[in-house]
Amino acid sequence: MSFEATLKKHHFHPIIDTHYQFGKALIVDLSPSSDIWSQVNDEHDFSAEIKRQVAETNAVIEIGRYAEQRMIYQDTDNFSQSSNRTLHIGIDLGIPAGNTVFAPIQGEVVALANRQQQGDYGPVIILRHQLEGYTFHTLYGHLATSSLQNLYIGKIIQTGEAFAQIGTFAENGGWASHLHFQIIRDLGPHLDDYPGVVDPKYKTFYLQNSPSPNLILQRENLS
């Protein structure tokens, strides 16, 4: 059975409260052709427009799409030398800061860092997992600084264990509060990081190495 099929049939613990993970969602389109940009101006940025749409639709979570082309990163310090990175290869789960993050399956902490350059992950944690003969990783970005305090490389996190919290704008790399969640098969040379936005020129490799996080989230009608 393929890796993707193995994940799809497995029952994972929710990574955030089920009220959010499976609740009414605003699926956010941040691609260049999105209608959202017609509502954006100097006094009303895309984050404010997303919040307006959340209130209008009574959504409880904002979901940023996997494999989406975006042009929102190029004005940040983190992307100043890599303007060709525009393909988002995680899923963003927009919920209030302070909410708990849970392990979807038992894992080992293999990386943790506080990447504070504007536009970066802020606090980030990577777990390594084993499932039916496959080794893979999950990445959690834009966390609260306190999430790093009681962790260390090699620590085992049990299925469903609370191990992190969602960070604020002031600590999460300068973004509206959300969790960037990503699956990574092979970390390659990366020690405490893995890109969540990549050059579309390498799309085939990255989408194979980081398949859709919804294989673990398991929300209906979400790729």
From TrEMBL:
<dbReference type="Pfam" id="PF01551">
    <property type="entry name" value="Peptidase_M23"/>
</dbReference>
<dbReference type="InterPro" id="IPR016047">
    <property type="entry name" value="M23ase_b-sheet_dom"/>
</dbReference>
<dbReference type="InterPro" id="IPR050570">
    <property type="entry name" value="Cell_wall_metabolism_enzyme"/>
</dbReference>
<protein>
    <submittedName>
        <fullName>Peptidoglycan DD-metalloendopeptidase family protein</fullName>
    </submittedName>
</protein>
<dbReference type="InterPro" id="IPR011055">
    <property type="entry name" value="Dup_hybrid_motif"/>
</dbReference>
<feature type="domain" description="M23ase beta-sheet core">
    <location>
        <begin position="87"/>
        <end position="185"/>
    </location>
</feature>
